[in-house]
Design brief:
single chain; alpha+beta; 10 strands
């Protein structure tokens, strides 16, 4: 019997491999294309233009607030008292009465007026038998300033006891009322000093005080131990911060009241 031989023709696998490779390449191409052209999420303020826009808006708000507060009207009226009922001491009292936008600061005005009248009554009792003749003097000055966005008035009240025979003052002291016109409230030293002098205002004020008393020979630098408490009398004039030390508060009382200008370094 004749043996028959045949060979089965197998299907080629090359086509499958090529198709798979093309599928992978096309798929990767689509993914890469999509990633390259996908709009990336933006964070607010991530671009320099966004940050600058926010800064500009903040500056605009501050400027608007400053302009609004700068137009606040106020008036300081003078209230006078004169008393000669005790021959050895008479009074010449002129105290401020403050009004903001036509509204009287009733409590503060009463506080100021009562304070100096009561001090004079006390002096009358203490000095009715003295040898010389005296006058109790009270006067005031008002300074207006813009501190940051706030309009602030500093009402500086000076009281003196004058020996009329010797024609010299025997005592003097200063009290200051610093008022924010927008809130109609007194402003603490820390708030104003930090605006004008920066966060290191305590160090700056202390340095100014040291230089003042040492420079004028009132005290040696090694003797200076005073630390700013924030309760000191202060005022602002022409944008310059002033700190007040009444008699005996910082140096010997013979040097009288110290009025020290403090400027940012």
């Amino acid at each position: 019997m004749e043996t028959m031989h045949y060979s089965e023709k197998k299907k080629s696998s090359k086509g499958v491999v090529i198709g798979l490779i093309l599928f992978i390449l096309i798929g990767c191409g689509i993914i890469v294309f999509a990633l390259n052209y996908e709009e990336k999420p933006q964070l607010i303020g991530s671009k320099e233009s966004d940050i600058q826009r926010l800064v500009d808006l903040e500056k605009e708000d501050e400027e608007n607030t400053k302009n609004e507060h700068s137009t606040i009207n106020y008036e300081v009226k003078e209230l006078k008292h004169s008393d000669k009922s005790v021959s050895k001491i008479k009074s010449d009292i002129k105290v401020p009465q403050i009004y903001i936008e036509g509204e009287e600061l009733t409590e503060l005005n009463k506080e100021i007026d009562t304070k100096y009248q009561e001090l004079f009554v006390k002096l009358q009792s203490e000095m009715k038998n003295v040898e010389s003749n005296y006058t109790y003097l009270v006067s005031y000055e008002t300074f207006e300033n813009m501190v940051g966005t706030e309009k602030i008035i500093s009402v500086v009240i000076t009281q003196k006891v004058r020996d009329d025979n010797a024609k010299k003052n025997t005592s003097e002291s200063i009290a200051v009322y610093n008022i924010d016109l927008s809130t109609k409230e007194e402003v603490e030293l820390a708030s104003v000093a930090s605006q004008l002098l920066g966060k290191d205002y305590k160090t700056i004020i202390r340095s100014a005080a040291v230089n003042y008393v040492v420079g004028k020979g009132m005290m040696k630098e090694s003797e200076f131990t005073y630390a700013i408490t924030g309760l000191e009398e202060y005022y602002v004039k022409d944008g310059v911060f002033h700190i007040i030390f009444n008699e005996g508060k910082l140096v010997n009382e013979k040097y009288g009241v110290l009025d020290i200008e403090v400027k940012e370094k």
